[in-house]
Amino acid sequence: MPQYKYADVGINLTDSVFRGKYYGKQHHEDDTEHVLQRAIEIGCIKFMVTGSDLKESKHAIALAEKYPGRCYATVGVHPCSAKTFDSHPGGPPQLLQVLEDLAIDAKKRGLATAYGEIGLDYDRLMLTGKEQQLKYFEAQLDIAVKVQLPLFLHSRAAGEDFKRLLASRLPQLPKKGLVHSFTGTVEEMQMLVALGLDVGVNGCSMKTEENLEVVKKIPLGHLQIETDGPWCEMRASHASAKYKGDAPPLPHSVKKERWNKDTMVKGRNESATIAHVAHVIAKVKGIPTSEVCEAAWNNSIRMFGLGETLEDQAP
Ligand SMILES: [Zn+2]
User: Fold this and answer.
1) Could you tell me whether strands 71-75 and 112-121 are parallel, antiparallel, or unpaired per DSSP bridges?
2) Spatial distance between the Cα atoms of 122 and 127, rounded to a whole number of angstroms
3) Which pLDDT tens digit goes with each residue over 205-235?
4) Where does this protein hold a divalent metal cation 2 (predicted)?
5) What pTM was computed for the model?
6) Contact predicate 60/18, CB 8 Å
7) pLDDT single digits (tens) 237-273
8) 159-169 helix and 130-147 helix, angle to the nearest 10 degrees
9) Residue 91 falls within a domain, yes or no?
10) 144 assigned to some structural domain
11) Is residue 166 part of a domain?
């Protein structure tokens, strides 16, 4: 029996590296099943698969269908892909309608548990300009309110705009939402928590000493954990590394050229590493890992459901 229970609420299982394809080149077979199994063995039993555009959202839903009770999907268009609204055949209103219909249908079937990944990314304006990001963040927030799905959010360097657009919709979203892969300041984190949002922590959220100071201050009642695999792995060069000394061992990893079904792939983060995210958060906060895991699990289930019911929510 695994010691703790985890939900990886940010995992990009639609990425081609989980089909064995890296930078367009096939290195090994699809090993999603093994990736999930490795995670389940350490107690990570729920996966929320990120949808980042229409195609990926459909793919995430297909994975939720394939792994019932394990995988759940988010539906939405990422701020960096927001320009696809303007190039969509049929125009932006049609893509918004398609997304809304998809979210309604997938929610009804118990497959979609969040609307996202949506938000603002002012660090990468070269991918989609500010005006388009704002316009389609707002339009998609309206879809989330209509469909009544909690939000899966992305925010980079967009503090005030992000707050302004959310503040007007959150009163109509009782489950609020999660700002995933948080890398902002203490003030920003406190602003999000004051709005009722949860904060998602992964390896990228613990790269620097400043990051760790923020993590230390995230209230347990608003903390969720994720890996953001295949991205955001914890590296030896990160500030988090000094807290990993007595962390539980991870499954063995090899280079992709030497892949076999029982190993992780170097440089490809996966859900089984969530144990290290929880471990470091606990060390940084100076509390037992069990406390971090229990809080994060409860917060994720309360917000997204993921096919579970909390005792305090029992009918
Ligand atoms: Zn993101």
Assistant:
1) parallel
2) 10
3) 999 999 999 999 999 999 999 999 999 999 9
4) 154, 180
5) 0.96
6) no
7) 999 999 998 999 999 999 999 999 999 999 999 999 9
8) 20
9) yes
10) yes
11) yes
